[in-house]
Structures are given as C-alpha cells and as structure tokens.
Amino acid sequence: MEMAVMGAAAEADQPAMVSRLRAQISQMQRRTAQVDALPVHDALAPLFPEGGLRPGASYALSDSAGLLLALLGASSQDGSWCSIVGMPDLSAEAAEAYGIDLARLVLIPQPGERWLQAASSAVEVFPLVAVRPHRATTSAEVARLEARLRDRGSALLVVGAWSGADLSLTMSAPEWSGIGQGHGLISSRAVSVAAAGRRMPRSRTVRVLLPGPSGGVERLETRAHRPHLRAVSA
C-alpha cells in the first residue's frame, strides 16, 4: 500500500482540494455526531475518560513518533482516515507496525511556515489529524483551530505543547528488553504513559510496551517481561 502525500504545490488550489477530498472521503467513510470516541489500543484506553479520542478534542503528546503512531493505529484499523502534518521523517514501515492502514493515511510532510493552515485544512476533511508545530502559536490561533475541531468533529494530536489541549500525554521510565550480557538485540521497550488535563481530576498512568516485539504497542505482561537495561533519559 502507499501513503498519499500532499505537498506545497497543492496549496495553490487549496479550497478546491479540500472540497474534493471531503467529497471523496465522505463517500468512503460515514462520519456522524453520535461517535463518542475514536478507538485507541486497549492498552492505552484507560488513559482517556471516554476510552478513546473524543471528536472535537485536542491532545498534546510527548515528542515520540511511537506514541503518536500508537494512538492512530486502532482508529485507522477501524476505518478512520488520518492525516499527519509536518513530519517528513515519519516511517511508513513503523506506521504499518502500529496498525495504521497506509491506504487511509495522508501526509503533508513539509508545510513549512504554513503548517497551521495545512492543519486547519486537514481538520476540514479528516476525522483524525496529527501535527508537529513549527513555531509557537498565539492564543487566537489556537482558539480558531479548536473551534474548527468542534465544528467538524475531528480529533487533533499535537506533538509538543498545545495550550488548548484537553489532555496532555507524557512518557517516562523507559526500560529496554533483549540485551543480554552486554550484547543482543533490543526486542521491546516498556514505558509509563501518563495523561492529565482539564477534563480529568486525577492523572492516569499505564505501563505498556512501546514498541513491543511486534513493532507496535502492546499491553505489558509483567510476569513475562524482564527488562535488562534501564534508560537514563526518555
């Protein structure tokens, strides 16, 4: 399968492109206001009050491609289209390992200074949008994009700080497995993922394999998992 990639050339005809994409995706995927949450992997679901990504909400993530892809995977498998903005180094192989259907993934890899406009256009079309900001945003810019999210019922994942975030997700305490007596292949990484935000009175934490031996997110089986190396920093 191949990912769709949108570049700077497409921006010249942006209104027509947005309308065309919206019509095409509407034919292939039904979006309704009755969706309570877009699904996430079972190992990550306890972090979210609704058990998944709430339409119209935004989430700030640690700078981790693995965490981002882990959050996209279940929704993609469930049929949702996803768009990723401003991440030119994203690995298609890693995306597939986390369960993302490349046939329903659209990349806008290098929007440059127009990353916010690109994210806003993606929100008009796709139910799940991820973006890495290229600069700090003003409160007015955040408010406009948040209003568009609520109007379109899309969920936004921001890699980095985001003042409008409903929840912020962070990673800590990484432990690597697979290394023997100074040699061997790393097979998995256990991490603690914590969620906290304005809609949740107490923070929540889960311990998961990110990635697991399969290359994607996995529930941590404490009896079977025996880490050999603790990382000094995340």
Structure overview:
The chain contains five helices and 13 strands. With 234 residues, the protein is α/β, with parallel strands linked by helices. Strands 1, 4, 5, 6, 7, 8, 9, 10, 11, 12 and 13 form an eleven-stranded mixed β-sheet that branches. A two-stranded antiparallel ribbon has the order 2-3. Helix 1 packs parallel to helix 4 (115-125) and helix 4 (115-125) runs parallel beside helix 5. The chain is globular, with a radius of gyration of 18 Å.
Question: What structural keywords apply?
Answer:
234 residues, alpha/beta, eleven-stranded mixed sheet, two-stranded antiparallel ribbon, 26% strand
Write the layout of secondary structure elements.
Elements: E1 4-5, H1 14-28, E2 38-39, E3 52-53, E4 58-61, H2 65-77, E5 82-85, H3 92-97, E6 105-108, H4 115-125, E7 128-131, H5 139-152, E8 155-159, E9 167-177, E10 188-197, E11 200-209, E12 218-219, E13 229-230
Parallel strand pairs: 1-6, 4-8, 4-9, 5-6, 5-7, 7-8
Antiparallel strand pairs: 2-3, 9-10, 9-13, 10-11, 11-12
Helix pairs in contact: 1-4, 4-5
**Global Rg:** 18 Å
Largest sheet: 11 strands, mixed
Q: What is the averaged pLDDT score?
A: 84
Q: Percentage of helical residues?
A: 25-40%
The structure class reads alpha/beta
What is the ordering of alpha helices and beta strands? EHEEEHEHEHEHEEEEEE
Low-confidence stretches: 8-12, 30-34, 223-229
Roughly how many Å apart are the termini?
A: 32 Å
Q: How big a fraction of the residues is strand? A: 25-35%
By DSSP, the count of extended strands is: 13
Overall spatial form: globular
